[in-house]
Design a protein that fits this description.
Elements (H helix, E strand, L loop, with lengths): L1 H15 L18 H17 L3 H14 L9 H15 L4 H21 L4 H15 L4 H14 L5 H13 L7 H15 L4 H10 L3 H13 L5 H13 L3 H14 L4 H13 L3 H14 L4 H13 L3 H14 L5 H18 L3 H19 L5 H10 L7 H6 L7 E3 L11 E3 L2
Antiparallel strand pairs: 1-2
């Protein structure tokens, strides 16, 4: 008789309260004639009170469900609903620190229950428990740090907000012996690697050391204690690069490229460092490796061209500029602009005879091509055209050589065998 009364009560409750279609999916037919009857009632009361934001009433009934066995109700997210309720009660109902502390203990107990029953979302509850211990409980530093360390070990992909909380605890509580500064450096270095667009992590790193040299020394020491650790090698390299310690950055970057031969980021940084240190051959080889790894990246060809230009190997430089243009998915004025500068450089280094003036004209013609694209170099290209106006052949130069308008003049001369181009008399 008692069972039927309970079942009838549930049925009437569902009808009278307009229990949602989601909650109506609970299979009443499977309710046993024992404690599951009252558990269904408790969940129904909890659900309806939560929907109507009667959180005080929902609180006790929610705990009755959770303390019994919430397994059959996980699809309705009872733990997250109880989390909402506790947050509301702590922020809106609790009036004393004692009450707030009670709700903090309650929240921690809730998260423990959630981890026990809701394994699918356990990562979330573990990291939220650590936050509650730190912020709500205002626990001793070591306790809060231990909670975050455990949570992040279980949930390494936790939002960076929580990792930053741990980093702040580390940095604010280093005593020179507990190793917290080093842990903070490692944590923020990893964040900087994972999220290089976020300046917060580099700012945190810079604030940890008294000077850049000390920071680099700390990062190096961390790597040397765990020499095969790629993350620590990268953290040391990044620290060196941030402070332009290019010579120091070579060792970790060379280590990284040897250990991970196909990681583009490592090769790009190493190529840059070699170039900064005027290690031209090494830089070219690094960029050629990048070309093999990403043959459609125009920047790699362009960077090689610039190095050859600085070496005075103008013909090779031009060939890489052409490869850069071919690799570009759209018209790109920068390689054309630099090609024009190659001709200008060649003429400047050779002399100021008629053949040299013709090369200056070739430079002007090429700058004009760059200007027509209306890209980033269009203004600079027009400026160079004006600057070279007195260096190109004048009308009298053509007249005395009986060269009429439209005549093709092949570029020639001992300095220009590599050019193999012509100009047209205007």
């Amino acid at each position: 008789m008692k069972t039927r009364i309970v079942l009838l009560f549930v049925f009437v409750l569902l009808l009278s309260t307009g229990f949602s279609s989601v909650s109506a999916k609970v299979n009443i037919a499977t309710i046993s004639a024992t404690s599951s009857d009252s558990l269904m009632v408790e969940f129904s009361l909890f659900w309806e009170a939560y929907k109507t934001k009667d959180y005080k009433f929902a609180y006790d009934h929610g705990w009755n469900v959770i303390n019994d066995n919430p397994t059959n109700y996980l699809q309705y997210k009872p733990f997250k609903k109880m989390e909402d309720i506790i947050i509301f009660l702590r922020d809106s109902v609790a009036t004393t620190e004692q009450d707030k502390n009670m709700y903090a203990d309650t929240m921690i107990a809730l998260y423990d229950k959630a981890v026990q029953y809701d394994s699918k979302n356990s990562d979330y509850f573990i990291i939220k428990k650590a936050y509650t211990i730190e912020v709500w409980k205002n626990a001793p530093t070591d306790e809060a740090i231990a909670a975050y360390e455990y949570a992040l070990e279980k949930y390494p992909d936790a939002p960076s907000f929580y990792k930053d909380r741990l980093g702040i605890l580390y940095s604010q509580n280093d005593d020179g012996e507990n190793g917290y500064k080093l842990k903070a450096l490692q944590l923020y270095s990893k964040l900087a690697e994972e999220d290089p667009e976020n300046d917060t992590w580099n700012t945190r790193l810079k604030s940890l050391a008294d000077n850049p040299e000390e920071l680099a020394d700390i990062m190096k020491r961390s790597w040397e204690l765990d020499k095969e650790n790629l993350s620590k090698a990268y953290a040391y390299a990044e620290t060196c690069l941030n402070y332009q310690f290019y010579t120091r950055s070579i060792e970790p970057l060379e280590f990284l490229t040897k250990k991970s031969t196909d990681v583009i980021n490592y090769w790009r940084k190493l190529a840059l460092v070699y170039n900064k240190l005027n290690k031209s051959d090494a830089s070219i080889n690094a960029y050629k490796t990048l070309i093999e790894l990403e043959p459609n990246n125009r920047d790699n060809y362009f960077n090689v061209a610039l190095i050859y230009k600085d070496l005075g190997q103008l013909s090779v430089a031009r060939s890489y500029l052409q490869k850069a243009s071919n690799a570009s998915s759209e018209p790109w004025d920068l390689p054309i602009f630099v090609e024009a500068s190659l001709y200008e450089q060649a003429a400047r280094d050779c002399g100021f005879e008629f053949d040299d003036k013709c090369v200056y004209q070739l430079a002007v013609d090429t700058y004009a091509k760059a200007a027509k694209l209306n890209g980033s170099q269009s203004g600079a290209a027009r400026d160079r055209i004006k600057a070279l106006s007195n260096s190109v052949p004048q009308q009298e130069d053509y007249f005395f050589r009986k060269l009429s308008s439209g005549t093709e003049i092949k570029i020639q001369g001992k300095c220009y065998n590599w050019i193999n181009k012509s100009i047209i008399v205007p």
